[in-house]
Amino acid sequence: MAPVTKSTDQAAMKVEQKAKITLYWLEKSRAQRVLWLLEELKLDYELKTYKRQNMQAPEELKKVHPLGKSPLLSIESAATEKPIILAESGVIIEYLIDHFGPHLVPKRYEDGRDNQVGGETESWLRYRQLYAAHGHRAIDEMYVKAKNVKARKRNGQLLTINQSVLRERSPFFIKPVTNMIVGGFESAFLRPELGRLLDFLESQIASSPNGGGYLCGHELTGADIIMSFPLNAARGRAGLSEERHPKLWAYIERLEAVDSFKRSVQKIIDTTGSYDPTL
């Protein structure tokens, strides 16, 4: 199959790769970025929505996957004997991009430097740093930790968190993100390190290749989609403000202005009656 680049080739690829897709979406979770990707790729899919019960995913999700978490994605095609069930948003997004949206990954090599060490484009290197290196796992840990912090605060318990495990599993630029939405509860410890992270991301937007408005250049990529969840959760908290990080703030608003993002939000409003991205 020829490389996929623009919408015409993308449409041809979708015909060739026709599949039945079902997204199991849970409110206030990273499932929203998977829904955004499905809308961005203009794929046909079935959406099944779930409400949290005492901040947890409902037991019925365990009927789909033993872990009972969300997001979950079911895929059936002519090549499958039974549905493939994918768990974890980073894995789901990478799978969908591999099969339906290679154009959401920047060009890897500079012209004439194919397969050469050091021949990669700046955009591709940024993509790999911001998406890969288990960055999505660090974001997942941030999400779980944030929920635990809120639950323990409500119960009036003192929270002690072992930061070393999170740091060992996180790439250098994402480590503080695992903590950012905890907010004032740990602000005295996190603020300097978090400030450096946000300053770094601000500089990434400011120095986007060829003056682009996204993390990897002029075009939206999977890195923007995967990073949308923690940045949106952190906005207005723990030092992420329009005054201090205007370019990063404008970048988040730019993501929310993308047609496919707006369609994903409207899809949830139409299906559940409301949309609330906050944890």
Brief digest:
By secondary structure, this protein is α+β, with helices and mostly antiparallel strands. It is 46% helix and 8% strand.
Can you walk through the features of this model?
This protein has ten helices and four strands. The protein has helices at 7-16, 31-40, 89-100, 122-131, 135-154, 163-169, 187-206, 222-234, 246-256, 259-272; strands at residues 20-26, 46-50, 72-76, 84-87. A four-stranded mixed beta sheet has the order 2-1-3-4, covered by helices on one side. Residues 133-170 and 181-185 have low confidence and may be disordered.
Which descriptors would you attach to this protein?
279 residues; alpha+beta; four-stranded mixed β-sheet; 10 helices; 4 strands; 46% helix; 8% strand; globular
